[in-house]
Amino acid sequence: MKTAIFVDGNNLYNGLKQRRVLERRRRISMPGLVRHLAPGAVIKKYYSALPEYGDGAQHLGFIEALRRQGWEVFLGRVQQGQEKGTDVALATDLVVLGMEGRYDRAVLVSGDGDLAPAVSRVVQMGREVEVWSFQGLLSLELAQTAQTVRLLEEVPWEDVSYTA
Length: 164
Known about the structure:
Strand order of the largest sheet: 5-4-3-1-6-7-8
Radius of gyration: 15 Å
Number of helices: 6
CATH class: Alpha Beta
CATH superfamily: 5'-nuclease
Order of helices and strands: EHEHEHEEHEHEHEE
Helix content: 25-40%
């Protein structure tokens, strides 16, 4: 079974920050996260945007590290504090790659209800969709659309993180 992982970076980051996983210079090992959520993923896609203000250098360093690890990265833009273009890009890739038969199983790391129509379309195509989200960030519409929903609270963060 060909597996693809699609990560909504802003959604993941905010959930980790709210749960204080990133305190005390903790960083997430994306290869470790993939091993836990989507072992053997043949497609790894990450969607984010560079911060509008402050130091974007650290975020850019993370993005470059992802690229070196074989991730395809889409960078949207930030406009008046809101990320723009990332949800549309993720939804488009989810549907198009599903139509092209590039994956059988999609692992979606997001709780964003804006992605529910794309997930619905992919499910109609006969693809399996598994959503991973933090409790409280998971929209009801997305939860009702995917075949499987798992909570990111289940992830053993101590095993997929390290101290920088």
